[in-house]
Amino acid sequence: MFDLGFLGGRLSSGAIGICLVLLITPAAFSQDTAAAEKLDEELAAVAAADTVEIPKGSTVFLPVLGYTPDTGLMLGAAVIRFFYLDEPGPETRPSTFSPTFIYTLKSQIMVFMGTDLNWDEGRSHAGIFPNYIKFPDQYYGIGREVTLDDQEDYTPEQINLELKYDREVLGHLRPGLYYRAQRHRLIKVDPDGELASGSVLGVDNSLVSLPGLSLAWDTRDNLWAPSRGLWLNLEARTSSGTFGSDYSFNQFIADFRGYIPLGENSVFAGQLLGTGLDGDPPFFSFPLLGGEEGLRGYRGGLFRDKTRALGRVEYRRDRILGRFGGVLFAGIGDVAPNVNKLTLAGNLWSAGFGVRYLLDEAEKLKIRLDVGWGNGDSGFYLTLGEAF
Q1: Which of 93, 89, 81, 83 is nearest to 43 (CA)?
Q2: Nearest Cα to 374, choosing from 36, 148, 67, 123?
Q3: Domain-by-domain residue ranges, the chain?
Q4: Distances 308 to 27, 71, 266, 375 between C-alpha atoms, Å
Q5: Which residues, at least 6 apart from 126, have a Cβ–Cβ distance to it below 8 Å?
Q6: Under a CB-based contact definition with an 8 Å cutoff, are residues 136 and 26 in contact?
Q7: Can you give the pLDDT at residue 321?
Q8: What class, spelled out in words, does domain 2-384 have in CATH?
Q9: 297 φ/ψ angles, rounded to the nearest 5 degrees
Q10: Terminal C-alpha separation, the chain
Q11: What's the chain's average pLDDT?
């Protein structure tokens, strides 16, 4: 398995463009579009880093090139347009508009149109992330008992719109609003597979409409590679016919992260992540245990269920050799139909190591290459920024 978010470089006042190489498997764009949204948000976040020095109104072009057996040759381009909602100054973050288009020789398409808005000296933030995806994926079933032999290929077509707003109040507290609309249909399935049988909720053409609330406490000292502080985030979302959705379910997310410095160039980082669904959600909304957002060492779509819980830790060491550093990581987790059935008896652990290359000294922006092993699976990951 190979997962890559995106590979780029720090932008400076004289930059006119950088190469962007994407080597993407279907697992990198899972049916819940987590990786697609991650790519879209990362493009915006790179542009919105505090200390980037870019003239007002500048534009950066990023070519895209890649290949996988499922897609053949991939070609495309990304554009980042910088603008300011406040007068530019040392505390002002630029806002960005970052359209991205990718086309494969097998007529697969990905289009992202991310807009990241910052104003009031960074106290207010909003994100607008529409995207369109037609890309192959794999389905293995529901629960922790599935195996790699259960794989069936399918191709979804999705139109998504994600909206976010948050504002800093009372110190580091940031309440926020969230909304996501997702139009989903399957344009290709395995005729002998479970999805083709119609027994899985979500195989029909459908719409998910998901408004929600968030509440975060953020004391991290850096966006891309924190060395101290906490990030505590709670989210609650609901989908129902009242909001135009074809499914009725609730989603709850708790994400707690902490960072402890261990000397000048070392950090211990930890994360506890829980996601729960109740009601009748479609299969493509189920949380995934593996992949870039979970336990590295398992492919993204292998383990899914209504409830997911995981913990992971990392030891990070910078400046081992010039700009190169290293990471050791481990994690454990589970998926289950409800919280009461979560267990560690499934032995869904992961462990691995990684290499980091420091692109930007001020922002601690790094290229990340990780190799992870799970219980019966493994993965290779190349992307930008730390895992959490």
Answers
A1: 81
A2: 148
A3: 2-384
A4: 18, 30, 30, 17
A5: 116, 117, 163, 164, 165
A6: yes
A7: 94
A8: mainly beta
A9: 125, -15
A10: 20
A11: 83
